[in-house]
Amino acid sequence: MNKVLIIDDEEKLRTLLSKIISLEGFEVFEAGDGKKAFQKLETTDIDVVICDVKLPDGSGMELSKTIKQKYPATEIILLTAYGNIPDSVQAIKNGAFDYITKGDDNNKIIPLLYKASEKVLLAKRVLQLEKQLGDKFSFDNIIGKSKKFKAAIDDAKKVAVTDATVLLTGETGTGKEVFAQAIHNAGSRSKQNFIAVNCAAFSKELLENELFGHKAGAFTGAIKDTKGIFEEANNGTVFLDEIGEMPLELQAKLLRVLETGEFLKVGDSKTTKINVRIIAATNKDLQKEMEAGNFRNDLFYRLAVFQIQLPALRERVIDIEALAKYFTHLFAAKTNKKSSTLSDDFLEALKQHQWSGNIRELKNVIERSVILSDTGELTFDTLPFELQTNQMQNNKSEKQLSAFDLASAEKLHIQKVLNYTNGNKTETARLLNIALTTLYRKLDDYKMG
Asked: Do the beta carbons of residue 174 and residue 309 sit within 8 Å?
């Protein structure tokens, strides 16, 4: 039920309006002055305020301005005994929904209330969606407790509150876009646009148009001026995924954006000024790309003001179970199935897999298993053939070694230490008190990758 607050020092008018509005199904509250009105606003979630322009303790015009500043989702309808155009204009500028004359416009109040209520409902839905989006792409919702991953999150949190350009590096599927969105949402630009573009998905010409837009007549079919991503994201964030795939000619234009905040639209002779934060990501080694002449040195150093390396999933084995459970709940809800448990052999196979596709590959595997499962449990036989085969080969290899021989014990111990260090071979060698070259030889001997 929508809540309406009537603010007027005329008790008879308040009572009359209250009865009329209550009959329409609204919950009505009353206040005789601005002070009592704010006391009610502080304790009740008011949707629409109907306020007299003249109040015993101040101006209704100023009160409406203050209410909108403090409660932006609340709509205000102003009432006056003598309406005039300048007052109407000022009322709307102050944020009022509408401005009507007492007595003459009584028949307008109910239709206005319904329109104002619809606007309030829409605003509340938008706020709810923004909150859900913010929660979804917050650092608190990024799953991972391995040492390397926590270090990456800590670094991202520190840079998020600045306006620094960020370069996210790591293999495909390690969650670079999720990090980029979380950095945006934790920063001062969180209320502005976050626009992502995959630089590998377009040809040079299409990518240039996508990023910078074009002027009418720039090419056949360009019948009107069109904004590009940078202009659409003004005051917000642009996420450039697969930046290593950007053609050299466009790298020069991007460098100009970073250095001056300006760019030329396709077919334009006049620069466009913008203010955006840039977060870039790549799965390529940009140092090697620079050596090969495929990536500009000056652009790299402008992009890599703050660089964050995201670890591969095989380097954070400790996080696999939590990620698997999260995706299981997610896809169970999407497929209208009961959330499944994970069998021990299912989990073990996940932990032993190399995950070349990282989190994206794990997500796909879990979705497949949820669809196939009919028992309320994800079991070994719901895994893709490749994972089943790899696990059976691992088991066969282990059985070939006697449970009592030294090699078997050594292999198991190395695996435990690797799991403990989340795949960090240098740290593993240090804890085992052996040379790194010795560790690599043993890994090769035991076919441990």
From this structure: no
Contact 4, 26 (CB under 8 A): yes
Where a domain ends, among 311, 345, 367?
311
Which phi and psi angles does 10 have, rounded to 5°? -85, 105
Give the count of domains, the chain: 3
pTM of this prediction exceeds 0.85:
no
Identify the CA nearest to 175 among candidates 17, 334, 45, 355.
Answer: 355
Which residue type sits at 380? F
Place of tokens 């999933």: 313
Q: Residue 48 is inside which H or E element, if any?
A: strand 48-52
**pLDDT confidence of residue 311:** 95
Q: What is each CA distance from 35 to 38, 268, 322, in whole angstroms?
A: 5, 56, 52
In this prediction, residues 187-214 reach a mean pLDDT of 92
Domain hosting residue 153, numbered range? 141-311
288 and 370 inside one domain:
no
Give the span between the Cα atoms of 209 and 226, in whole angstroms. Answer: 9
The per-residue pLDDT for range 26-46, each reduced to its tens digit, is 999 999 998 999 899 989 989
